[in-house]
Amino acid sequence: MRVLNCVFIVVFLAMLTFPLIFVDLSSDRVSIQENRMLAQSPPLADIKKHPATFIRGFDAWFKDSTGFREQLLALYNVMGRLINSVWYTDGQYLYLIGEQGHHYFAHTGGILISKFQGKQFLTDKQLTNMAIKLDEVKTYLDNKGIPLIVMLCTDKETIYPEFYPKSIKRGSEPIQLEIITGYLQEHTDVDVFNIRQALLAEKNNFMLYAVSSGDLSHYNEIGAFFAYRELMEHINTYFPEIIPYKLDDIEISYDRTGIPNVSIKAGTAYKKLDPSFFDDVNIHRPFSWENEAFENDESELPVILILSDSYSLEQYICKYLANHFGRAVLINYGNMEYFKEYIDRYKPDIVVFESAERELRGFANSVAGIPKLQ
Question: In the chain, where are the structural domains located?
Fold first, then answer.
């Protein structure tokens, strides 16, 4: 073992020192791979006259003159091709490349892969604390005659596991989303559900998530429609007079890349309110676009308050939902600490908590962090 350690140290030091020892001191060099002239060594006189310019020039020259630079670039390109057969990056986000060109959001340091493999996603403590607080919230709202609904949305791999990279083996049933949903249903009196079965029932009729272009983090507008339909089944328990949209009520079109757009044939009956609507309440705005408010032409309709993530935004669920309510107020669930203030301010007739499957850790902690309600 000591011999192996010594060999490793020698190899590591060689990798560090050889490129420094064999720095290329020649001039007028051209990189064939990059098709450009390489940086020249700055004049030493600039050390005193223009130190900042010298530092920048020296840095550029040193990077371009490192020993074995062309060979290292070639190795980097080979490694890049190998890596990009599994990983794909779009800006700051990381995706897995699956079967038949499907991309999957994976920007969480392997957490989503572990969840797909069936490993525990929420700790027992997180589940317990969330269940206790949800029951407390329900009791508080029951005393005001306000129903509470909790909706858990799905990640793409939950609906399309067959296209996930074959090298990653899926965990056995029940999947983590069903385990979490089942626990909350068993240990609380809250109306809790997830949209998995609703989307699975439509996956052979429609593509519900982007394949490899456009928004790769959410369901698409068609997936959002079926999520809305599932939510409306629960809302109709308390407001049976509200008539949800049917497939015949919407029109689906596709752009040249295959990304769908869903429009309501009858048009919309609401207007989006200015962000200043939230100026008179405590609210954090780390993602200001995740706080939206809508007002309907028919102001006598009930008021809905939604504490959620981006899966409920106007471009998704609220595109349909806001038409059914006199006012729809959407606030990111990261602001749960001000929950009582929102109830007092907006006086909702119904409250919905929503979380994406991959965001359940943050959602559980936010719910558990709601201050004591009286």
Answer: 2-75, 121-368
